[in-house]
Amino acid sequence: MSTATLELRHFGHDDLPKIRQTLLDVHADAYADAMDDEFTQRFPWFVDHWGGNAGFACVIGYDQSKPVGFAYGAPAAPGREWWREHVSEPPPDDSTFSVSELMVRPRWRKTGAGERLHRALIEARPEALAVLLVDPDHPKVQMLYEAWGYRKVGNRQPFPDSPNFAVMIRQLKAS
Known about the structure:
Blueprint: E1 6-12, H1 16-30, H2 38-41, H3 43-51, E2 57-63, E3 66-75, E4 96-104, H4 113-122, E5 129-134, H5 139-147, E6 151-156, E7 165-171
Parallel strand pairs: 4-5
Antiparallel strand pairs: 1-2, 2-3, 3-4, 5-7, 6-7
Helix pairs in contact: 1-3
């Protein structure tokens, strides 16, 4: 599959009821070998949590009519950004978009689909910064985000049963 054939569709908070099952289906395929993990099993809760945010933004990529992956997130609550505890001096404009999920089905990995989904999600954001969390068991993923302009600023374990994620931040616009 060429990323040239990837159709990107944008969705928001009000669209969650019509895209929720698509997100769950892509997740089930992407994590088929880890569905016995309790943290992975809570994905529907995360979809509802993020989708419940009025600023929720999602991009789903389609190869013809087949969803191949998605990226979603929402603006961070001021003062509660994941990077805040790791940066001694916040930038003048600390508005932040939290990239919560970027997921590509196995068949479409290493095709550029993930980068296109990510770019489509953040390219028109009004916030100055983007932040995301990366599982440290996936150093290649962290290196990929570094290639996309992110830098690691610390670690964070948001839930007792979650990994101690690497916190990564990226400038979206000049501050």
